[in-house]
Amino acid sequence: MTVSTKRERRRIRAAHAVRERVQRERAEFTSAYGRATTTPERFYAAAKALLRAVASKKALPNPADAERRVETVTGLLVQLVDELLTAQETRADNTIRAEQKRIERRERRRNRECRTHQERPAGPLPAA
């Protein structure tokens, strides 16, 4: 067996291993995505599959194109995270302000009731 034949067989074994890994990962992704019942679960399945797919740059047919596309997706995810966190922060701020106003109104009402009770005479009301 020549050196080139050994090298060719090694490349064939490596290609078989890559194909088996890809088929296994595709089956895992399809299964996880199919089981997912919520949007976050589907997102997690897709993100996990993407991470696994780009982990081995040697097996990618066009690593530069894959890198560019992953950067695009990453940019979109960063924007989405910022939007979601900003919306959550705004909602929390609104809840805090609303609760503070409610507490202040309740305290003012209690103070008014306390003053009203203090101003009334202690005994029975005079008959008219």
Describe the structure.
With 128 residues, this protein is an all-alpha fold. It is built from 3 helices and no strands. Helix 1 packs antiparallel against helix 2. The mean pLDDT is 87.
Write the layout of secondary structure elements.
Layout: H1 3-35, H2 39-55, H3 63-119
General form: rod-shaped
Structural class: mainly alpha
The number of strands is 0
What is the count of DSSP helices, taking H or I runs of 4+ residues? Answer: 3
Beta strand %: under 5%
For the largest beta-sheet, the strand count, sense and barrel status come to: none
Question: Notable features of this structure?
Answer:
mainly alpha; rod-shaped; 128 residues; 84% helix; 0% strand
Summarize this entry quickly:
This protein is mostly helical.
